[in-house]
Structures are given as C-alpha cells and as structure tokens.
Amino acid sequence: MTPGTSPRSTSPAESVRIRNATRATMAQFFVNGATFATWGVLIPSVKERFALSDAVLSLAMLAVAGGALLTMGQSGKWIARVGSARALRQVGILYAATLLLIPLAPQFWMLVALLLVFGSAMAAFDVAMSVQAALVEGQRTRPIMSTLHAMFSIGGIAGSALGA
C-alpha cells in the first residue's frame, strides 16, 4: 500500500462511478491541453492578420497571463461555492467560446479583450480541473495525477496536430 491510500472494498456500482469520474477527469485534462495547444497554433495567424510586431504580439499575449492572474485568486472561492464539476461545465463553455472567437476578432482591441477572457477562463478551468482531480484521486486506491498530466500532454499533441 502506498502512502495516502487505504484499503477499500467498493460495490460494483461504486467502482463504475469511480471509473466514470476518472475517465471524465482524464478527458478534462486532455481538453485543457488541446485547447491551450490550439491557441498556440493560432498565434502566427493572429500576428499576420493584425500585422503585429513581435513586441506588440508579446503585449497581446500578456493579456492571457493577465487574465489568469486576475482570476486565479477568486477561482477557488467560486469553485468551493458551486462545486468543481459545475464550475468545469460553466467555465468550459467560456474557455471554448473564447478560443473559437480569437481568430474572428475584427479589431486588435477586441483580440486583446478576448485574450484576457481566454486567460481567465483557462485559469478557472485549470483550478476546477485540479480540484476535481484531487477529489477523484481521493476516491481511488491508486494515485492518478501522473496519468492526468499525461492526458494534458496528449491533448497538447492532439491540439497541435489538429491546428497544423
């Protein structure tokens, strides 16, 4: 037995519920990796579309980090209030929508605003996903964090390949 685990006997229904929760959490990590990688693939086209210098592109990309920083501190309180599964559903829609809207931004200031929201949604999704992962791992007899992070990487590969 590894540290932090305890022997459990679970009913077949409970085992199925835990397995489904594990798969759903793996999917969340995959989607997060794919979404972030897809944003990375969009960067050259955004730069070309708005004829941005490297310096201006860097400032626009700073909006993603800024959105994340503005959101990260409050995300935990919100997730504790609504629950990680509900938070993932809600913020996941925003995360996906902003990714889809980034290449459609008609003006540079709208692009920067979208990147700010994208960064906020990404941060809130990441926090909620991590909370969900900890909850699921706590129900299992074996750790799964390394598997979940591998799913993020596989999602990143898939997002990059899809964008290419």
Characterization of this structure:
The protein has 164 residues and is mainly α. It has one domain (43-163). It has helices at 12-49, 54-82, 84-101, 108-139, 145-163. Helix 1 packs parallel to helix 5 (145-163), helix 2 (54-82) packs antiparallel against helix 3 (84-101) and helix 2 (54-82) packs across helix 4 (108-139). Residues 1-7 have low confidence and may be disordered.
Summarize the structure.
By secondary structure, this protein is mostly helical. The chain contains 5 helices and no strands.
Question: Would you tell me the structural class of the helices and strands?
Answer: mainly alpha
**Secondary structure tally, helices:** 5
Give the percentage of residues in beta strands.
under 5%
Q: Mind describing the biggest β-sheet?
A: none
Cα distance spanning the termini: 44 Å
Shape: elongated
- Structurally, the number of domains stands at 1
Q: Provide the low-confidence segments as ranges.
A: 1-7
Give the overall average pLDDT: 91
Helix content: over 70%
Count of beta strands? 0
Radius of gyration: 18 Å
Order of helices and strands: HHHHH
Features:
83% helix, 164 residues
Fold topology:
Elements: H1 12-49, H2 54-82, H3 84-101, H4 108-139, H5 145-163
